[in-house]
Amino acid sequence: MMTRFTKGLMLAGVALVALGLTAPAPSPAQAQEDPIRIGSFLAVTGPASFLGDPELKTLEMYIERINQAGGLLGRELELVHYDTGADANKARTFAKRLLESDEVDVILGGSTTGTTMAVIPLVERAEVPFISFAGGVSIIDPVKPWVFKTPHTDRMACGKIFEDMQGRGISKVALISGTGGFGKSMRGQCLEVAPDYGIEIVADETYAPSDTDMVAQLTKIKNTEGVEAVVNPGFGQGPAIVTKNFAQIGMAVPLYQSHGVASKKFIELAGDAAEGVRLPAAALLVAEKLPDGDPQRPIVVGYKSTYEAVHGEGSVSTFGGHAYDGLMLYKAAVEAAGSADPAAVRDALEATRGFIGTAGEVTMSADDHLGLDLTAFRMLEIRDGDWVLVN
Amino acid sequence: MPAPLVEFLQFLFSGITSGAIYALVALGFALIYNASHVINFAQGEFVMLGGMVTWALLSQGIDLPLAIAGAVALTMVVGLALEKLAIEPARNADVVTLIIITIGAGIFLRGLTSVTLGKDLHALPSFSGDEPLSLLGATIMPQSLWILGVTAGIVVLLHGFFNYTLLGKAILATSHNRLAARLVGINVSFVLLLSFGLSALLGAVAGILIAPITATHFEVGIMLGLKGFAAAILGGLGNGVGAIVGGLLLGLIESLGAGYISSDYKDAMAFVVILGVLFFMPSGLFGRRGTERV
Asked: Around Cβ B199, how many Cβ atoms within 10 Å?
């Protein structure tokens, strides 16, 4: 028994040694060819899946395309992704794993502001560049050295609306906002920036996201002295009902919706009542309508057709566009830095000048890690059941 | 008309429209409660199914009247199936257990709808156009008139059914005393089945009527169900007149409250009223005073 056992052990030992001898030692050339590891955590499932799902699809699609075209600086890109389900705790855990055991070169992602904020202290400590796809202005204000983001903010949407009002000579405005996260946040931002544009908020009504009738609130606004326009920050069915009720009680002042309902679905839900409604939206929504000379046109048309070729007609969303912008910003920064070294890439990201993405033209600086201005939004008007660009 | 009066009328129209829908949902609660003392928390899902199935049939190219008939029929089948497959097998269980079963059924129906019909919002076309009608200076949508008319019609029909048909009287008898009803030869389990079918019908009709105004999606039933339940409590659980009055009152409280006090508390006001009723008039406005035999 004993001898048979030791014999077996010895045989195994010999076999191991033989294997070790025949295995080739890693050559320095191959170490150079290690893939660039892109870490990502997105809300692919759960309440924010409408954000995370197109973002992940976009990352997978374009990383594959970059690899087919020979990679980045001759190195393959490798995506390491975890699904957070929009849970900030999970996001923190996954970010830790990405930084410590996956040893990624960059982190792209964070579909929601909550998950992004949870991860920021970790990436700041690990000193790895992080490009977020979430909307909140708190991500980049105040500026954190390693944190960047691609989507426009609520504050910019308010600015765009008020800028358009200035052009029409409107100064007294009523707000009717949803009390959901989106409506609440945008309402706050609009109240804050209104004085910068000489806009006075003369009425401030709210409704719950699941409300079925806003006639009472709108009647109150209608009877408020001097209202020249109404703004409706909100998301989902609420704005469509507001638009219908607005037409029902015969209000004649201009109605502005937010970028939260910038989709064909809104026109479908609000029907004829949507005629004449204005709203700010990303260029992606009106890709084919942009004039030929528009610098964004080739980018947004290209992204839209590429995405829809794989995922079906009408499937493109601005959210996937944020992921596209993040990946392309990183690619440009790596190319500019000539390496994937985190510190060099960070400096290159901050030095981004005139980068054209789906969200607009990006010019970053040491105190602006978003780099978009109001031109990122296009003012649209709904006419005959379709979008028309307003200049 | 002076402006404040027009404003009041506008709040009134808006409140009565929502109130009529709450009343239909509340009637559904009352029917099932009467037959079984179960509060059917899947009632909101009947409302959702009415709207969603109508939309699904419409998108298949079926005409609106036919789509509505189809949606009502399908929702009734779901209501009957719920009774046959979930409530009846557990008929010897506690009322609380049965209520929990209906909560489960509601979650199941929501999930099933989100998987089969998607999570998107959908609009139904208004039955007779989107041109608002002007009445004494205030405006009302034709769809609101549909809601009020159909609700009134249903109330009259239900009244006739319960008071002048044998079947209706059998349901009433069962609600008064189950054992005695069985002793005089009423098929109590059939009455229970029927009450689920009728409730599903009421819910589906409510869901279809309101869908052109609010749009519909798989979660639309949660809030409408809760409001309907609140209306039923307000009127007195199990009381038909109470359900209607409770629904209309709730709609008015919401719209007048949002108009004259603050829109921030529109939903809260409805539930504050319920709390008040539960504290001070536990059996509602029209409810029988509950007596417990020891």
From this structure: 28
